[in-house]
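does this look right to u?? magnesium ion version
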Amino acid sequence: MMPVRACVGLGANLGDPMAALTSALTRIAALPTGDGLVWSSVWRTAPVDAAGPDFLNAVAMFDTLLDPETLLDALRRIESDHGRERPYRNAPRLLDLDLLLYGDRVIESARLTVPHPRMHLRAFVLAPLVEIEPRATIPGHGAARVLLAACTGQPIERIAPPAAIAPRDPAPGGTTPGNTTPGDTTPGADAPGAMAVGRDR
Ligand code: ADP
Ligand code: MG
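got this back:
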């Protein structure tokens, strides 16, 4: 099987959301096939169809050899390891990981709908996606940046450059994987509106 480019949406609005996103990215980087991992800045939004405090959201993309359902299982495991509970639909959550895209595949199974059924309507998904992949398209819906422009009335704010994550294999000298720039961990370190674009490792 050829690697497939997968896209995962991360969200959290309870506890320490920034810590949850950073820790989830570290776990995604450690998936057996997380090659070519890039991730977005962290974005803040008011809850959409959900309760509780503001959300922090980010998007990660990586090549995977896992089939979609196995990848979903891995994501669910990371969620539950972060204390995710599902007391009721759209409850506040410590960590939400959604499989947004799996290459250009359209999947409708009992457990999995890809593209994620509401991603094309949500600024908190589309803004980070367009940040790391400006030409992203969503099967059945079209160009992500066009869809983002149609997301009116969804205030969203980019609050931090890409999170620093722990290196997978710490090398002497401390190189880090992914798009981490040493020292670039201060929220607002970039000029406002300047998109920090993810780089391949
Ligand atoms: P949501 O993310 O929609 O707010 P949950 O995270 O609680 O809600 O997910 C509910 C169910 O959605 C999960 O049990 C999962 O099996 C299913 N699901 C269907 N498609 C997807 C997808 N693309 N990514 C993640 N979960 C999905
Ligand atoms: Mg989910």
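Helices lie at 17-29, 68-81, 123-132, 144-149. idk if thats expected tbh
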